[in-house]
Amino acid sequence: MGRRYRAAVVRTVIVWTVIVAMGLSPSLAYAQPLPGAAAGQAKLDLGYVTPEAAGVVVAHPHRVLSAPQMEMLPVEVLSAAGLKELGIDPVEIEQVMAIAEPPRGPALPQAGVVVRMRGPLPQGPILGPLWERTAEGQLEGKSYRQAKGPLDFSIFHVNDRTLLAAHNGLLRKMLANHAHPQPGAMSQLLGRISEPPDLAAVLLVEPFQPLVALPLAMAPLPPQFAQLKR
């Protein structure tokens, strides 16, 4: 199990490295609305975006899957698969926000996900393999599922519609920041979005520069691409 988790972390770092290496500006922002899809239905809750967050992806599954352009998709099959594997109907997810913090020193990158449902969350075990890697714990006077290892995600029910799944340290930071929000570059950037699109991804490149400096310096690029390392 430990070897598989280490391999997963390595793959994650590689993906982040590729993304950052492609960045040629202090920040990259991408937004993709579906034609005819209604925007502005679910305002972003930026309280969970910590000041150190450098990567955020936001999606609105229900809005996308219920759009007229998606009527030919096998939505019922997707719902059944989600309920079977994760215990959650993806069609009923109002908003998903994934948050990533860059590593500091020897620490690994931290990541977390905020899931907001249209209706009440199901009771009992959910999120499949993530749940299996947790144990009963207490946080802020409430029972939650505490990660068994440093690479595992803890699971916390904020209320009957909102769920957090994150590395345990980041989970505590997200809850603390939501109670007493502290501004950061990411939250300020996202705050400019008045009507959240169906899918948005924002990456602040500068915090990841130390992470990719050495791999880029060692990368065997052809001479004509050598300037990309700078």
Number of helices: 7
Q: Note the main sheet.
A: 7 strands, antiparallel
Secondary-structure-derived class: alpha+beta
The number of E-state strands comes to 9
Shape: globular
Mean pLDDT: 79
Strand order of the largest sheet: 1-9-2-3-4-8-7
Query: What is the alpha-carbon Rg in Å?
Result: 19 Å
- Secondary-structure element order, N to C: HEEHHEEHEEEEHHEH
Poorly predicted sequence stretches spanning 5 or more consecutive residues = 9-40
Count of all domains: 1
Compile the SSE list and pairings.
Layout (H helix, E strand, L loop, with lengths): L1 H20 L5 E5 L23 E5 L1 H5 L9 H11 L7 E9 L8 E8 L11 H4 L1 E6 L2 E6 L5 E5 L4 E6 H12 L5 H6 L8 E6 L4 H10 L12
Antiparallel strand pairs: 1-9, 2-3, 2-9, 3-4, 4-8, 5-6, 7-8
